[in-house]
Amino acid sequence: MGFLSKLFGNKEEKVEELVLKAYMKGKVVDITEVPDPVFAQKMMGDGFAIIPEEGTLVSPVAGEIIQVFPTKHAFGIKSGDIELLIHVGLETVAMKGEGFDVKVSAGDKIEVGQTLLTYDLELVKEKAKDIITPCVVTNMDAIESISVLKLNENVDFSQEVANLKLK
Question: pLDDT tens, 60-109?
Fold first, then answer.
């Protein structure tokens, strides 16, 4: 037995962190930069956002789809004890699903990197307030902290973007 395992014992505990992968190709920004007070003031939870370069959304985690909004622009995902909301664009609800092609349904089990949605990014630029796409933890009581690793960097699908430390 090595020195560290004598010191700390064998780790057989529950998962202590969850890594969030890039759910879009684009630039990662702080949640406070989202031009909408509901997200910027963390009313729904803490997280980050990506300014997308193309119209594809993939899952940042393995888990289950718990909600697909009827207007196709937002998804609820559960991974272990963590619940995430990904909201494609701002004021996209007014588009009533136009230009959005959802690939999953509530109850579906999903893998990291699985396509959830493809959409017409140019149409969103034209019809919505903004294309920025926030991802927030909606049950903040389940986590101790969130650290965004790639702030103000461009990311490609499935690169590690954030770490959640679980309670």
Answer: 999 999 999 999 999 999 999 999 999 999 999 999 999 999 999 999 99
Q: Please state the φ and ψ torsions of residue 20, each to the nearest 5 degrees.
A: -100, 130
What distance in Å separates the CA atoms of residue 158 and residue 4, rounded to the nearest whole number? Answer: 32
CB environment 19-54: b (16+ within 10 A), e (fewer): ebbbbbbbbbbebeebebeebeebebbbbbbbbbee
Q: Catalytic: which of 75, 87, 116, 124? A: 87
Whether 73 is catalytic: no
Q: What is the pTM of this model?
A: 0.91
φ, ψ at 142 (rounded to 5°): -85, -10
Read off the tokens for 30.
């702080």
